[in-house]
């Protein structure tokens, strides 16, 4: 049955990726329908928090674009590139990296890729070199941006529901690993890219295009510098204000994520004291429950039967704050009314449990506002301020490329992540037995799984939301999952992602392209080097930091 269900998931991903846009999301919904109605898997909760965070960030980025802020940033980047043409293979990816880091979306690279291609051609640098690594840099920066959809998805998992499994991750924990690891990985790949292919003056394809008049002779690299400076000088004040506001929003998200004490807090609900007995099989759990119901002492039975470390203390789990228990415990304990009440058998990734309600008291610890709510509030506020202060037309926001691409990502995550969650949770017993020992011994194998799935999904955020819950349930340490985060940048592998296609078309010399065997394209080597260098450096950093 597992393999039939797995085939449904893969088919939905494959067809959805071929459809593109919202096709990925709606095919995920179709796959979920098959899993639910045909195979009777219980659907999990849809990823509402992740979707709302992405929607808020995309709204702010869309307003920035409508206000002219992105055009202003592109002009600044163009001036930097034209003033340093001989360093284009290194400055190009730096520009696209920091653009994406700041904006939270790799689609901002579209605006600067033509500039990189022309500056390289005008200075005699083979455009394939800076173009290939610049596209890869724009993808790598997604997993370092504090407001990227993939980052907020990971934070929502490691800092939200996963906290119940002992994961207590803040935004700063992700950033302090992923920013240096991805940036260094990009620089390493830039050095590799700088050796790719023949120099432009010796490239037969380019020389052929020159002779046939398909491309004009190269101009002086500084020919358009005056125009760029003029564009920057004539940038409306409203565009500069929008950029400043968006930067403030990004900084606020980083500060609130890095310093939890800055967030408001409240006393919510009550604390519950519980004890549990955990055994390996459902049959044994039912026998234990029957023994307890017939008058057996819970503490004594726990010491005799429980396979958990709490057996020595009679299964005592101590006081548990609302929202901090394992979800299955939280749901079952809500039905218990008085001390001594027992749950029925509860299945979790750790085994089969019987939980006893011991006591209740007013909440002792205050609950801080979660980062999902912080990101949503901050980015919606910044969007509102840009609309009011920069006099942006709302109609222009929803028509912009950034907003359209972002909303498509929300729909994709809605369907695909929901389907993936349902599949993995419904088959957790099988997966735990087959995979847990393997990935615990060699965590990098899970990074390989993330990489392969990202090739299929064409979305870092959808990959995170679909597969990271499995890594959490398998008990992979949170720092390792953070180190493996850049593995979700695998969608360069098949050369049909929009930024890859755009880069090929922007390079008029013909040096950036797809090889005879499809996979031997210009982006393969830089992409593999950057991705796996980032993962390796990430593992080194978590060893030093955690």
How far apart the termini lie comes to 40 Å
Q: Report the total helices.
A: 24
H and E string:
HHHHHHHHHHHHEEHHEHEEEHHHHHHHHH
How would you sum up the major sheet?
Answer: 4 strands, antiparallel
Shape annotation: elongated
Helix content: 55-70%
Q: Give the strand order of the largest sheet, numbering strands 1, 2, ... along the chain.
A: 3-2-5-4
Instruction: Report the uncertain regions.
Output: 161-165
Q: Which value, in Å, is the CA radius of gyration?
A: 26 Å
How many domains is the backbone divided into? Answer: 2
Average pLDDT metric? 82
Taken as a percent bin, the fraction of beta residues is: 5-15%
Q: Helix/strand/pairing class, anyone?
A: alpha+beta
How many strands? 6
Could you explain the architecture of this structure?
The protein is of the alpha+beta class. The chain has 2 domains: 48-264 and 371-545, no CATH class; 267-367, Roll (Chitinase A, domain 3). Helices cover 62% and strands 6% of the residues. It contains 24 helices and 6 strands. It has helices at residues 2-19, 23-38, 48-66, 69-83, 88-103, 109-122, 128-140, 149-158, 171-193, 204-211, 225-233, 237-258, 282-293, 298-305, 327-333, 371-389, 394-399, 401-426, 428-441, 444-457, 460-473, 478-483, 498-506, 524-545; strands spanning 265-266, 270-279, 316-320, 346-348, 351-362, 367-368. Strands 3-2-5-4 form a 4-stranded antiparallel beta sheet, with helices on both faces. It has a two-stranded antiparallel sheet with strand order 1-6. Mean pLDDT is 82; it is low at 161-165.
């Amino acid at each position: 049955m597992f393999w039939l269900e797995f085939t449904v998931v893969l088919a939905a991903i494959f067809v959805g990726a071929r459809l593109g846009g919202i096709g990925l999301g709606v095919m995920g919904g179709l796959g979920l329908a098959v899993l639910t109605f045909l195979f009777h898997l219980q659907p999990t909760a849809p990823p509402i928090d992740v979707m709302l965070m992405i929607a808020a960030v995309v709204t702010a980025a869309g307003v920035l674009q409508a206000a002219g802020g992105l055009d202003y940033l592109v002009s600044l980047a163009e001036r930097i590139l034209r003033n340093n043409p001989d360093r284009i293979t290194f400055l190009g990816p730096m520009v696209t990296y920091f653009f994406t880091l700041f904006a939270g979306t790799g689609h901002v690279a579209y605006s600067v890729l033509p500039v990189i291609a022309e500056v390289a051609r005008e200075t005699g640098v083979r455009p394939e070199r800076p173009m290939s690594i610049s596209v890869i840099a724009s993808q790598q920066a997604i997993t370092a941006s504090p407001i990227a959809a993939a980052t907020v998805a990971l934070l929502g998992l490691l800092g939200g529901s996963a906290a119940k499994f002992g994961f207590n991750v803040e935004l700063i924990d992700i950033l302090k690993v992923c920013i240096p690891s991805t940036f260094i990985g990009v620089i390493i790949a830039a050095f590799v890219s700088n050796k790719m292919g023949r120099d432009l003056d010796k490239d037969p394809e380019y020389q052929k295009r020159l002779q046939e008049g398909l491309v004009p002779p190269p101009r002086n690299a500084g020919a358009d510098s005056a125009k760029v400076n003029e564009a920057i000088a004539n940038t409306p004040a409203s565009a500069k204000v929008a950029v400043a506001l968006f930067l403030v929003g990004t900084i606020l998200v980083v500060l609130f994520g890095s310093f939890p004490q800055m967030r408001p807090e409240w006393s919510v609900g009550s604390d519950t004291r519980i004890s549990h007995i955990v055994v390996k099989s459902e049959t044994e759990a039912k026998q234990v429950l029957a023994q307890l119901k017939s008058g057996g002492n819970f503490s004594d039975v726990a010491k005799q039967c429980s396979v958990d470390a709490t057996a020595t203390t009679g299964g005592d789990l101590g006081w548990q704050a609302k929202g901090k228990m394992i979800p299955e415990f939280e749901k079952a304990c809500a039905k218990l009314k008085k001390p001594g009440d027992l749950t029925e058998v509860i299945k979790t990734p750790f085994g089969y449990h019987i939980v006893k309600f011991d006591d209740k008291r007013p909440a002792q610890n205050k609950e801080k506002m979660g980062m999902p709510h912080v990101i949503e509030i901050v980015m919606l506020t910044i969007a509102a301020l840009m609309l009011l202060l920069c006099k942006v037309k709302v109609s222009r926001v929803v028509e912009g490329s950034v907003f359209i691409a972002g909303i498509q990502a929300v729909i994709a995550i809605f369907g695909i992540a929901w389907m993936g969650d349902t599949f993995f949770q419904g088959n957790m017993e099988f997966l735990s037995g087959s995979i847990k020992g393997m990935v615990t011994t060699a965590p990098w194998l899970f990074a390989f799984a993330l990489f392969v799935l990202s090739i299929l999904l064409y979305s870092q955020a959808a990959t995170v939301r679909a597969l990271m819950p499995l890594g959490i349930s398998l008990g992979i340490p949170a720092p390792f999952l953070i180190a493996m985060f850049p593995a979700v940048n695998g969608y360069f592998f098949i050369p049909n992602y929009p930024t890859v296609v755009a880069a090929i078309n922007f390079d008029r010399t013909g040096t950036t392209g797809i090889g005879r065997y499809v996979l031997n394209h210009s982006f393969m080597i830089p992409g593999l080097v950057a991705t796996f260098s980032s993962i390796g450096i990430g593992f080194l950093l978590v060893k030093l930091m955690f």
